[in-house]
# Entry
Amino acid sequence: MLLKDKRAIVTGGSRGIGKAIVLDFAKNGCSVVFTYANSVEAAKELEGESEKYGVKILGIKADASLFSEAEKTVKFALENLGGLDILVNNAGITKDNLVLRMSEDDFDKVIAANLKSVFNYTKFAFKAMMAQRYGKIINIASVVGIIGNPGQVNYVASKAGVIGLTKSAAKEFAARNVNVNAVAPGFIATDMSDKMTDQQKEAILSQVPLKKAGAAEDIANTVTFLASGLSDYITGQVISVDGGMAM
Ligand code: NAP
# Structure
C-alpha cells in the first residue's frame, strides 16, 4: 500500500477522474475527504466504499471556487482525519465557446472553478502541511493548457494558470518539504469529455498517437504515484498522461 495511514483532500471527487483518485487512494490505505458541487447521491454511494477499504471516505458539498468553502473543507478534514498529508485539486468545469460568442460570465466562472479554486485550497492546505514539514499537492491541469485549443480560451487559460501556480508554489514550498506537481490529462472518458460531439471527439482522437481515449484510472495511477513516497524527489513538474498528445 503506497499511501498507508495518509490523509487526503480530493476536490471534485463525486464523479470521473476525482472519483477514480478517491478509490485508488482508499485502496492504497489513505483516508479521504472529497468535495462535490451537486451530486449528493453519488457522494453518498462513494462514502459507502469506506468499509471495503478500511479507511475513512467522507464527502462534503463545497464550491471549490469559494475561498470560505475551501477553508471550511480543510478544517473539516483536519478535524475528521486528524491531519492532512495530500491535496488533489481536481474539481473543474468547461463552458466552451468561440471568443466572439463567449460571455463574460462563462469566462469568469471557469477561471473561478478551475484556477481560483487551486489557490483557495493550496493556501489553507499548505498552512497545515508546513507545520508538519510534509505534504504533497497535486493539481489536475490539462493537455490543452500546454498546447491550446480553439473554443476553450477560458478553460485553457485556467489550466495554463494552474501550471504556473504549480511551479511557483513548488518553489515557495520546497523548503518546507511540500512537493507540488501537476498532471496534464489528455482525452479521458468521463462526463466532461462526453459533452463533446462525435465530430469533436474524432478530431481529438486523431491527435492521439496511442489512438484511444484514456480512462480515469490512468490519471489516478499517476496521481497516486505523485502522492506517494516514490516521488519524493519530484517537484514543480507537469506530467502528461495523454496518450502522447503533447510531446
Ligand atoms: P467531471 O466528470 O465533469 O467531474 C467533475 C467533478 O468536479 C465532479 O465531481 C463535480 O461535482 C466537481 N465539481 C465541478 N465544479 C465544482 C465546484 N465548483 N466545486 C466542487 N466540485 C466541483 O470531470 P472530469 O473529466 O472527471 O475532470 C476532472 C478534472 O480533470 C478537471 O479539472 C478537468 O478539467 C480535468 N481534465 C479532464 C479531462 C477529460 O478529458 N475528462 C482532460 C483534461 C483535464 P458534481 O458531481 O457535484 O457536479
Q: What stands out?
A: The beta strands are 7-10, 31-36, 57-61, 86-89, 135-140, 178-185, 238-241. The first helix runs from residue 16 to 27. The chain is about 45% helix and 15% strand.
